[in-house]
Design brief:
There is one protein chain. The chain has 1 helix and no strands. By secondary structure, it is mainly alpha-helical. It is rod-shaped, with a radius of gyration of 62 Å.
Amino acid sequence: QGLKQRLWDLEKMLEQAREDKQDIHEEMTQQLQELQKQAAAPSQGLEVKVKSLQEQIATSLQESQQTQDTATQALAERDRTITQLQGRLSAMEREKILSAVEKILHSSLDLLLAKMAEASQHWKDVGTTITTEHKERLQEFGLSPLEM
């Protein structure tokens, strides 16, 4: 009877140990699931942050490309403007040189015309003197210059 009682007590203790083991297992499983949830929460937050940062990077890359395109266009426009201004400057320099040459030619022509007028007057005077001398000589010989 004592052995039966002892066997029954041991079976009860074994049953209690199994229940305790089962309770501990369930509690540990719950704690594990809670820890997994807690660990997953920051991981999900990090995933959201990573996705957000990736989107920001993509946006920044697009903005950077647009900025680069705008800068390239601005540089091309600047180069065109510089080329146009250099062309205008060259044209103005040519016009200035041509104007200076034209002034030099006009002053040279005016000087030449003045000298020609002076020479013409001189030769008219010389011609008049020669004509007068010839008329006088013809009259010395009794000839009329109008008859000749």
